[in-house]
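Q: Start with the shorter request: fold the first protein.
A: Done. Sequence, then structure:
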Amino acid sequence: MVSVDGRDDFMRVLMLNYEYPPLGGGGSNACKYILKEFANRNLAVDLVTSSPSNIFETETIGNSVTIYKLPINKKDIHYWTQREIIAYSWKARKFIKTLMKENEYDICHAFFSVPCGAIAYLFKDKMPYIVSLRGSDVPGFNDRFGFQYVFLKPIIKKVWKDAKAVVSNSQGLKELALKTSPSQEISVIYNGIDVSEFNPNFDKRDSNELRIVCVARLIERKGIKYLIEAIGELKDTNIKLIIVGEGNQEEELKKLSVELKISDSVDFKGYINHNQISDIYKNSDIFILPSLNEGMSNALLEAMGMGLPVIVTDTGGTHELIDGNGIIVPMGDSNAIAEAIHGLMDDPETRMLMGIRSREIAERMGWSAVSEAYLRAYEELA
């Protein structure tokens, strides 16, 4: 423990996450909410992350959280090139050495096995570290990284082995990680949601149109094409699909909607600022996440917080959130998605009951509980 503001009972934490809003996705947002909670806790945190611009930036949350944003010369806020990952790793390692001359850290918390877990490993003789598994940092999670996993797997196993704790954000992701390292001890701390940001509207909208929303990066792993194909099977019904997000599949998916003659029924919203996303949910009837792999989706949690019934694929942490509030369908199966939509289309009462149940589940998963779980882990391991 170190002294902060004249008090001697503060723990000082070094946190590493190469992405922080507006960069990145679920792991980025989770980091932001955890830090907001930590600002009200009995600890001081320094986060080393990346700048969305080409200049070094700092940000503070309250009096005890400082965010250092290293200039990486990023080209796309949603995607990382190998050059950018290497740039962050090199600059973070150098900057951490500077921070450690000024501060004595009780523990290091690394989001993602690589690059952040690997960076923490380099300082293991100076401070203990824990690793948060988020998704693509676990071998086998993302087919796009199959070749990289071959080379990274030995590094990842070593990072996990020397960590004081390895924490997954879902039971499904933990089970996947154990395929890489069966003897590894892995705990689970789920993602959370700030339910105060989301106010569900259970009143029936005055519309005969069924509005379906999907919030996800437009990449192959999210399986959006199967959702669009499902809407194609239901083209003679009064359905509107709203897709929020950007990605390298955007033009391909737009072309698919044209080929299926449903372009008038599919609205590509592109990037929506996070503080406006609740309005999208509020005017929707069903949330669908057709991912081919997933950890613990923040978008799914947010949709549940808004009281929406959900249709999800049986992957990663999604099935852990379904308990009377939605339908689970097989991955990569547009027919199953279409059948699930059709089953809820003319049943507003079931949709409402599922939505109420979604909200109940979300209310149990606040970020306060998540941050408290991490804080207990820090105290046990430091």
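Q: Next, the second protein, separately.
A: Sequence, then structure:
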Amino acid sequence: MSTPVTPVDLIIEARWLVPVVPRGLVVEHAAVAIKAGRIVALLPISEARQQFDASQVLSLPDHALMPGLINLHTHAAMSLMRGLADDTPLMAWLNDHVWPAETHVLSERFVRDGTLLACAEMLRGGVTCFNDMYFFPQAAAEAVDQAGIRACLGLVALEFASPYAADADDYLNKGLAARDALRGHDRITTCLAPHAPYTISDRTFSKILTYAEQLELNIHLHLHETKDEIVQSESQYGLRPSGRLAQIGLLGPNLMAAHAVHLTEAEIDLLATRGCHVIHCPGSNLKLGSGIAPVTRMLEAGVNVGLGSDGAASNNRLDVWSEMRLAALLAKAHGEPSSLPAQQVLEMATINAARALTLEDSIGSIEPGKWADLVAVDFSGPEMQPCYDPVSHLAYVAGREQVSHTWVGGELRYERSVHQSVDPDQIKEVTALWQGKLKQFKH
């Protein structure tokens, strides 16, 4: 009697399968079976052909198939400000360039257009999910829907007015309304996103803590990014920023702290004890002169660390590949080449980031039952030869130019320079429009 054949939507066959979980596993000549957007099975190619009847079979004999990258800290719409104010310290960059520019152009259309540009860039670079912090989240959601990417959209809070909201309460009310409107979306989640301790009052932080607890929302903020931020906090509150957040009760397993460059040993241990997550943004930290985060020490202490690019206005690239390589190299700068090895930095860009978003049961690795958020990386070029270890190549050799295919929820969203849902002419049109409006703020 013949073995029953199971129908599936897609089988992807690859030279190497790098599932990330379990750690260190690499399977040669393997296939992933996908049905209704989710992973059904991982198995040898020969067995996949026997066990499954697929509507489509894609053979990638020179590729590694891996989980989609997760960009854990972005300001997506600020891609329209790429290169606007380079080589400037953070506070001058914000006060003299970014915030004045935002006052001039910030609108729903600006956010929708800028986020679409960012989504196109990230899908092209193998990013299948991003964690955003910006204004007008429902406008950002429109771009996310068009591009077909996955996103966690931050519900921004600030104390000062912007074209989006009048004051802290207005920010929170508008954010929570957006959260209600987006509930149930299969690719969009939300989190509370107070900008930073130096822009948020104790009263607002207390409200955010209450909402986070009642609604079971994560909190995404900037923390300990610069030395000036710490000096200011000590002067105003008598506490370093993390100490102030601890006093309010905000340090917990739902907190995602971006940057975390300037931490004491005690603060690292505190973040670990409270189960906080840190988002390492090495490229932005270096470009803004903020410093180098003590990532190795954080990982040793048990802090979950993911990777983010920050916005294209400060990093210029929404490129998680370059963040992986840079993070790994910076960790070795103190003379220990075994610090942050290839497997660990790959986890930071995938499963660690998913864990920070409370999405580790759905994305971040190639496992049955999870969404088929996948990336194919082409190893056929001379710059990828020879290959003794695919994981090493993914961390140290590959870049976004090697990404050939990107799937989100089993849907092909990008293939060899072609986006499935983003018109390149549309991108050129909107970028030209906003460049004309923003060029007066060029530094």
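Q: Describe the second briefly.
A: Residues 237 and 290 are 22 Å apart (CA to CA). The chain has a mean pLDDT of 96.
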